[in-house]
Write the structure tokens for this entry.
Amino acid sequence: MERYYQPEIECASRDQIRAWQNERLVPTVKRVYENVPYYRHLMEKKGVTPDDIKSVDDLHKLPFLTKEDLRKAYPYGLLAVPLQDCVRIQSTSGTTGRRVVAFYTQHDIDLWDECCARAIMAAGGTNEDVVHVCYGYGLFTGGPGLNGGSHKVGSLTLPMSSGNTDRQIQFMCDLGSTILCCTPSYAAYLAETIVERGLTDQIKLKAGIFGAEAWTEEMRQDIQNKLGIKAYDIYGLTEISGPGVSFECSDQHGMHINEDHFIPEIIDPKTGEVLPEGSVGELVFTCITKDAFPLLRYRTRDICVLNYEKCPCGRTHVRMSKPMGRSDDMLIIKGVNVFPSQIETVLLNKGYPANYQIIVTRENNTDKLEVQVEMTTEMFSDNLSQVSAREKELVDAMKAMLGIYVVVKLVAPKTIARSEGKAVRVIDKRKLY
Ligand code: DLL
């Protein structure tokens, strides 16, 4: 049976959703214009005033916001309420430049928790579940977001945070965790460890809610098979609130965007032009219900496609595809666009685990793409000719997928460092930026 947290909203008619968006967009733009000088200047530069924005049809007139703007306005420059109304900050895991800091009023946290509660119920969660949250807690939004959602659903919430795999598995067995929330790479690692220790009979997991990084369908199958669960995708970003901006339902074909809170657009990442329905492009969000940090036309850099077709689950909110890559993590190798997800698809199709690293170097002005991938214990062998035959098979498969030559190095099982949070898959040594 399909479960909804807020059926009257999640299954509303498209006309009703559009009416809510129009109703909420207009005052939000006015409020941001009046309270956020940084954005007011951007609007003035574009010659737009709040009076020009009468409905969602006028959205394209507004200027974009980028991560660069957030860095320039750091820390308080995009705040739309007095600081004393804020009760929380969260921050991105950004490794370069300044961190991005997002602010929340209590109302913002309540809405965010509701979005996450929708995700948990779409994964079959109820107040009878034990929700095991091993996303990081703290500045990262993963732990606090799913924790809040789980409370709203009324599930027993295990605020495990990340790390200490032995303890994670112990609690999972002892407390009978039924829903696992973590990054897909950590889920794959947990699954691998549970299988190796012969503990599959002792776990009661039925579903997983995995997101915060790219993962492929093949990886989903692998986790589902090893843990005997249904694995659901969840998407979000700190700037827009955190996890739960969109989430998968039982149909597992795209993630429903919580359109009563966020208006999505797909744009051409090069020109900024809004693309017609069904186009692949960069996802842009406008927040229409947030108090403290209502970003307008925020460029996510995530490349995906929106699907407005009716979903068998009954939800009417538009579905976004899994992000196919980021307009800023797309690698350009010898002029060819390469997404790490394409490499992962080849590896998993050929039966390799999702433990790999992509290393890009440049020698004599020529780019070199090397993929190091672990063999499974069954594949591992001392016979060098067998290993090189395997490497050759992967080189050919990569060439067919990407159109370029890739150096493949097979390495022994368990030699690539595991991650407890987001996996670091790409090491670009070219220093192009
Ligand atoms: O990763 C929020 C989150 C936490 C989402 C837990 C889901 C679960 P940030 O650290 O700000 O926020 O990173 C946001 O991560 O722009 C995407 O590029 C990527 N991302 C998030 N979810 C997915 C997903 C959190 N399901 C950035 N698939 C986003 C692929 C994802 N990429």
Observations:
- The mean pLDDT is 93.
- The chain has two domains: 1-327, 331-428.
- Residues 92-93, 135, 141-142, 211-214, 233-238, 242-243, 300, 302, 322-323, 326 surround DLL (CB under 6 Å).
